[in-house]
Amino acid sequence: MDDYLILGACNPPLAHRALEADRSIGLLLPCNVVVRRDGDHTLVQALDPGTMVTLTGLDALKPVADEATARLDAALTALAAT
Fold first, then answer.
1. Starting from the edge strand earliest in sequence, which strands make up the sheet with 41-46, in order?
2. Separation of alpha carbons 62 and 49, rounded Å
3. pLDDT confidence bin for 1, thresholds 50/70/90
4. CA angle 44, 74, 35 (to 5 degrees)
5. Does domain 4-80 have CATH number 3.30.310.70?
6. CB atoms near residue 73 (< 10 Å)
7. pTM for the whole structure
8. Could you tell me the residue ranges of all domains in the chain?
9. Distance CA 13, CA 69 (A)
10. CA 69 to CA 64: how far, in whole Å?
11. What would the pLDDT profile of 36-69 be if each residue is shown by its tens digit?
12. How many angstroms separate the CA atoms of 32 and 44, rounded?
């Protein structure tokens, strides 16, 4: 198996806001980022936070998902620039 690392990337204030909207959302929080080898390449992958909204149908989670998406996108963009 190629190298594979799961990083905990939860933002506690965002997680708290999501939990205030739905106490069972913990299972769907996009808190993991995977860094793995794929042949000669290193991939960094994260789940789209919008999945929380799609799967639950709770519009109250949309602002949390939007902020988490912006943060993850910025981090992934910064990595791609290096």
1. 4-8, 32-38, 41-46
2. 9
3. confident
4. 10
5. yes
6. 13
7. 0.85
8. 4-80
9. 14
10. 9
11. 999 999 999 999 999 999 999 999 999 999 999 9
12. 11
